[in-house]
Inverse folding.
C-alpha cells in the first residue's frame, strides 16, 4: 500500500519519520502489538464495544459549537469541537477506551501509562477502574506539583501514581520511566501511550483512536455549514494526539489548512520553550525518529512551557512529517498569549479551556481567516485542572 | 586482527566483561579506569557513552550518565581521551556502548571511523533495530572493522536468536531476565537457568556473555556455568561512587570478583 499522511509504511514511517527504535527487551511486546492492532480493531465485536463506550461512557459525539462572539471578534466563522465535554474533561479518553479494549484482547492484566498534565493519566485510570485492571501512572515530580488535582483524581480512581524523579521531572522523564517499567514487565503489561509518539505502531494506533474527532467534525460541519470541509482546522501540539485526531480525516483534503500550535514558553529563542518544529532536528526519542529538541551532541534538552501537556521535547512522527512537508502550518504561542486566550474564551463563550487548548485559541489572530472562512478549533480539554495556575497568574489573565 | 575473537580463543570460559561510564566519576577518569581494569584481569571492557535518556538502564547507570554529562563528556572528548590507548592496553577488547541518537548526530560514518581509530573493537547500541542495522549500518561497521553486539532476552523468539547469531561475529549479550540494568533477579527459581540452558542447547556460532543483575563473585560464577562469561556494570559503577582513587577502586573490584 502506498503510504499517505493517514497510513504510515509497514515499518511505521511517515516520510523519514517514525520507525521503532527500541531495545530488544521491548521487541516482543511492540511486535505483538504491531501484528495485531489492525486486525483486532477491525473485529466487529471490538468496534461494537468501542463505539458503545464512546457513546454511553465518553459522551460522544461531542458537540460542534458555533462560537458567535469569538467569530464576531475575529471576523470569521469559528466552531469549537467540544472535546472538553468528554468524560474526564479532555480528548485523551478516546484513546484509552480503545487501548484498554485492545489490551484485554491481548490478554494483558496490568496497565501502565505516562502523563504530563495528568489528563492522560486520569483517562487511563478511569478505563482501568471500568475494566477492573491494575493501573500504574508515571508522572514527573514537577508535573505532580503543578497538576495536583489530577494526581488526586487518579488515586481516587484506584491508580498508583509514581513520581518520575530523573531529568527535568516532566513528561519526557515520565515516559522514560513508563518504558523502563514495560522492560521490567514484558509479559502481563500493556503500555497505554497517551500521544501519537513512541515506536510504531503507537503513533498510528493513537491517531486512529483519536480520528473519531475529525470523523464527527465532517458530519457536523455538513449539517451546520453545508460543507464537510472547513478552511482551517486548528489544534495544539505537545506530542500531538488531539491534533492528529482533529486533522486525521482532513489530511488528504488539500483545501483544508491544518494549523498546529506549539508552546513557545517564554519565547521561541528564549531557551525556555517547547516549540519543537522550530527548534527541533531529526533524531530518536522514545522509540521513534522524529523532530526533537537536542544539543549538538544529541543529548535531549529540557523543554519548557507553562502547560504541562505541551512540555515535551519531541512531536509525533506524523506531525514531524506534516511540518517537513509543509502540509500543516506550525505556529508558536507564548505563555502569556495563552493565558490571555484563556480569559477571552471564558468571557466571550462561557467556556474555560485547558492551558494546552488555550494555545490553539491564541493562534486565531494569526490565521488570516476571512469573514466567510470556517475555522474549527479543537477544544481539546477543559480548564478545571489549571485553576491553580489561573489563580496564580490572575493579573496576566484579567 | 580482531581482539574480541582473540579474547574468546585465548580463554574459553569465565570471561569477565566490565562496563563503566566514560567521564565518571570525573571527566578524566576514563583512561585510568580502563587501564586498571585491563591490568587487573578484565577480559573485555565496555565503555558507556553517556546519554540524557538511557531507556534500558536502571538508576545507577542513569545517575552516572548524568554526572558524566555534567562533567563535560561527549563523543569528541571520549575519542580524544582514547587516543593512543592501544599503546598501553594492546589486547583487551574495547566496546563502546550507548544509544543511537548521539551516534546519529555525530554521523554514523564519522562515529565508526573515530571509534576504530581510537582502538574500539565493537559497538553496542541497544536501541538500534536489527532491520535498520542491516539496511543502513552493517556496511559502515564492516568497513571500519567494528563488530556489533546485539541483546537477547528471555522473550526473544528462537528464529530471531538465530538471525541475531547470523548477524553477529563477536559475542551474544544475554540479558539475564526482565528489567533494566542493575536490577536484582526476581524470577522464580529455575526460570533463569531454564532460559540459559535453552540458549545453550541452540548451539549458536557465537559465544555468550550474560549481563544485567550480575554484580559480585557469586553471581559471576553462577552466570559462568551457563555461558562463556558475564558482564558487570551497575555494581562496578557503585564501587566507584565517592572514591578518590578510581583506578585503585577498579582494581579492588575486579580482584574481588575474580578472587
Amino acid at each position: 500500500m502506498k503510504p499517505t499522511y493517514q497510513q504510515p509504511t509497514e515499518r511505521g514511517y511517515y516520510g523519514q519519520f517514525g520507525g521503532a527504535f527500541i531495545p530488544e527487551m521491548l521487541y516482543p511486546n511492540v511486535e505483538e502489538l504491531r501484528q495485531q492492532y489492525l486486525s483486532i480493531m477491525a473485529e466487529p465485536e471490538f468496534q461494537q464495544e468501542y463505539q458503545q463506550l464512546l457513546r454511553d461512557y465518553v459522551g460522544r459525539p461531542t458537540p460542534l459549537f458555533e462560537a458567535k462572539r469569538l467569530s464576531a471578534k475575529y471576523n470569521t466563522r469559528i466552531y469549537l469541537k467540544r472535546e472538553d465535554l468528554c468524560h474526564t474533561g479532555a480528548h485523551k479518553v478516546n484513546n484509552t477506551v480503545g487501548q484498554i479494549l485492545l489490551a484485554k484482547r491481548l490478554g494483558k492484566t496490568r496497565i501502565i501509562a505516562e502523563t504530563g498534565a495528568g489528563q492522560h493519566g486520569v483517562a487511563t485510570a478511569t478505563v482501568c477502574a471500568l475494566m477492573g485492571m491494575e493501573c500504574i501512572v508515571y508522572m514527573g515530580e514537577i508535573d505532580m506539583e503543578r497538576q495536583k488535582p489530577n494526581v488526586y483524581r487518579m488515586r481516587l480512581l484506584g491508580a498508583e501514581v509514581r513520581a518520575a524523579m530523573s531529568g527535568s521531572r516532566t513528561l519526557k522523564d515520565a515516559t522514560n520511566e513508563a518504558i523502563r517499567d514495560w522492560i521490567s514487565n514484558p509479559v502481563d503489561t500493556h503500555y497505554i501511550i497517551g500521544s501519537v509518539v513512541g515506536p510504531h505502531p503507537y503513533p498510528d494506533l493513537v491517531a486512529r483512536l483519536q480520528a473519531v474527532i475529525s470523523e464527527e467534525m465532517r458530519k457536523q460541519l455538513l449539517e451546520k455549514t453545508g460543507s464537510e470541509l472547513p478552511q482551517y482546522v486548528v489544534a495544539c501540539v505537545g506530542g500531538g494526539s488531539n491534533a492528529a485526531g482533529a486533522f486525521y480525516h482532513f489530511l488528504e483534503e488539500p483545501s483544508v489548512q491544518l494549523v498546529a500550535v506549539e508552546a513557545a514558553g517564554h519565547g521561541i529563542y528564549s531557551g525556555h520553550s517547547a516549540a519543537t518544529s522550530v527548534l527541533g532536528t531529526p533524531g530518536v526519542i522514545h522509540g521513534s525518529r522524529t523532530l526533537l529538541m537536542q544539543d549538538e551532541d544529541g543529548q535531549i534538552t529540557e523543554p519548557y512551557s507553562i502547560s504541562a501537556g505541551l512540555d515535551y521535547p519531541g512531536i509525533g512522527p506524523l506531525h514531524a512529517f506534516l511540518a517537513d512537508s509543509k502540509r500543516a502550518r506550525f505556529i508558536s504561542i507564548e505563555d502569556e498569549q495563552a493565558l490571555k486566550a484563556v480569559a477571552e474564551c471564558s468571557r466571550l463563550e462561557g467556556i474555560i479551556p485547558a492551558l494546552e487548548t488555550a494555545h490553539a485559541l491564541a493562534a486565531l489572530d494569526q490565521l488570516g481567516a476571512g469573514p466567510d472562512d470556517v475555522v474549527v478549533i479543537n477544544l481539546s480539554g477543559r480548564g478545571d485542572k489549571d485553576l491553580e495556575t489561573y489563580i496564580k497568574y490572575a493579573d496576566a489573565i484579567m | 586482527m580482531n581482539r574480541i575473537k582473540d579474547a574468546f580463543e585465548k580463554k574459553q570460559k569465565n570471561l569477565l566483561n566490565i562496563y563503566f561510564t566514560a567521564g565518571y566519576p570525573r571527566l578524566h577518569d576514563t583512561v585510568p579506569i580502563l587501564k586498571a581494569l585491563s591490568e587487573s584481569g578484565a577480559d573485555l571492557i565496555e565503555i558507556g557513552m553517556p546519554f540524557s535518556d538511557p531507556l534500558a538502564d536502571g538508576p545507577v547507570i542513569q545517575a552516572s550518565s548524568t554526572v558524566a554529562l555534567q562533567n563535560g563528556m561527549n563523543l569528541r572528548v571520549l575519542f580524544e581521551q582514547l587516543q593512543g590507548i592501544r599503546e598501553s592496553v594492546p589486547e583487551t577488547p574495547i566496546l563502546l556502548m550507548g544509544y543511537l541518537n548521539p551516534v546519529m548526530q555525530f554521523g554514523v560514518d564519522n562515529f565508526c571511523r573515530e571509534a576504530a581509530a581510537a582502538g574500539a573493537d565493537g559497538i553496542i547500541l541497544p536501541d538500534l533495530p536489527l532491520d535498520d542495522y542491516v539496511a543502513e549500518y552493517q556496511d559502515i561497521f564492516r568497513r571500519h572493522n567494528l563488530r556489533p553486539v546485539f541483546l537477547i532476552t528471555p522473550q526473544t523468539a528462537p528464529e530471531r536468536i538465530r538471525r541475531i547469531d547470523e548477524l553477529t561475529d563477536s559475542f551474544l549479550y544475554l540479558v539475564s531476565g526482565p528489567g533494566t540494568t542493575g536490577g536484582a533477579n526476581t524470577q522464580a527459581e529455575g526460570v533463569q537457568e531454564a532460559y540459559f540452558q535453552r540458549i545453550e542447547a541452540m548451539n549458536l556460532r557465537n559465544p555468550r556473555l550474560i549481563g544485567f543483575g550480575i554484580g559480585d563473585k557469586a553471581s559471576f560464577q553462577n552466570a559462568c556455568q551457563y555461558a562463556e562469561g558475564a558482564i558487570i556494570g551497575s555494581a562496578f559503577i557503585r564501587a566507584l561512587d565517592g572514591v578518590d582513587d578510581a583506578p585503585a577502586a577498579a582494581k579492588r573490584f575486579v580482584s574481588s570478583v575474580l578472587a
In short: The longest strand of chain A covers residues 257-265. Residues 206 and 296 of chain A are 31 Å apart (CA to CA).
